[in-house]
Amino acid sequence: MINNKNKYAQFIKSEAKRLGFLSCGISKAGFLEEEATRLEDWLAKNRNGQMTYMENNFDKRLNPTLLVDGAKSVISLLLNYYPSETQNPDSYKISKYAYGKDYHLVIKEKLKELLFSIQATIGAVSGCAFVDSAPVLDKAWAAKSGLGWIGKNSNLITQKVGSFYFIAELIIDLELEYDHAITDHCGTCTACIDACPTAAIVAPYVVDGSKCISYFTIELKENIPNEMKGKFADWAFGCDICQDVCPWNRFSTPHNEPLFSPNPDVLELSKRDWEEITEETFKLVFKDSPLKRAKYEGLQRNIDFIK
Predict the structure, then answer these.
(1) Where does this protein hold [4Fe-4S] cluster 1 (predicted)?
(2) Number of domains in the chain
(3) Pairing status of strand 149-150 against strand 156-157
């Protein structure tokens, strides 16, 4: 059986590579003890702001065996989204992950195909795919399976490729050979903490979500607090500052996923173009884009706040 566990794990990793994933790591499904204390403290200090969904399903968030019947293994996968081109410098900025098609749609398809391959080759394996939309602590699982370490900006960082990638999981009822966590390589660096314009990284490895530009421009549904005026550095949807300044991201290389390729029009938009965009154009250009999450009204609110 030991050989089978190893053989199946190697097969899954080779299939993940075939499907375009950057890397794949596997952990034993179980209770995340260290994360439980951290999450409890984070929520108690209201660092989730209006992201009340973070308070839901607390037990399931920490234990995938409560989320998926018979769960034995958490397969963590990384998918690169680092672009080969960036926006016109005279523009309101959007996070690089939002340049192309909504990653939920792209990754879900890949995960379905991976599960199908597992079932076709190994046999009766049940499982569920998760892409950032269910109570799964994706960064914790990816770190546990050796895909990187959680950095001082709370992002998963990998030595060879940085942090511009999506994290997804396939949780299955099959025992596999498991990977191990790697060491932290942030060292004494505080580049991300020093660069954050809203001081959202309140301590090394602790981000106050309610102070983050991404929170204000995507999650917050009401008016942005006036004390944040002048601190957004032209970010209208999300923010990449703590990743852009991270020394490990000098190793980022452009993705090869056609669906993440940006609409050339989006990269060329000037500030004036963003200010004058109509709702009809917004719906047309961003119909399968992550920007849908902010909606037209939300994007206009953000631009009005920072212009």
Answers:
(1) 186, 189, 192, 246
(2) 1
(3) antiparallel
CA distances to 13, 107, 244, 259 from 20, in Å? 11, 10, 24, 12
Q: Tell me, yes or no, if 138 is annotated catalytic.
A: no
CA pair distance 134, 113, nearest whole angstrom:
19
Q: In the predicted model, is pLDDT for residue 267 greater than 60? A: yes
Rounded to whole angstroms, how far apart are CA atoms 13 and 157?
Answer: 20
User: What residues are designated binding site for [4Fe-4S] cluster?
Assistant: 186, 189, 192, 196, 212, 239, 242, 246
Interval 73-111: pLDDT, tens = 999 999 999 999 999 999 999 999 999 999 999 999 999
Q: How far apart are CA 218 and CA 294, in angstroms?
A: 5
Strands 165-172 and 127-130: antiparallel
Please tell me the predicted confidence (pLDDT) of residue 265: 82
CB atoms within 10 A of CB 92: 23
Count of other CB atoms within 10 angstroms of residue 126? 14
Judge whether 294 and 224 are in contact, CB under 8 Å.
Answer: no
Which structural domain, as residue segments, surrounds residue 284? Answer: 1-307
Which is catalytic among the residues 132, 265, 288, 304? 132
3-state helix, strand, coil in the chain (%, to 5): 45, 15, 40
Q: Give the annotated binding-site residues for cob(II)alamin.
A: 61, 132, 153, 156, 167, 214, 239-240
Q: Among 169, 168, 171, which Cα is nearest to 68's?
A: 171
Using CA atoms, how far apart are residues 201 and 191, in angstroms rounded to an integer?
A: 11
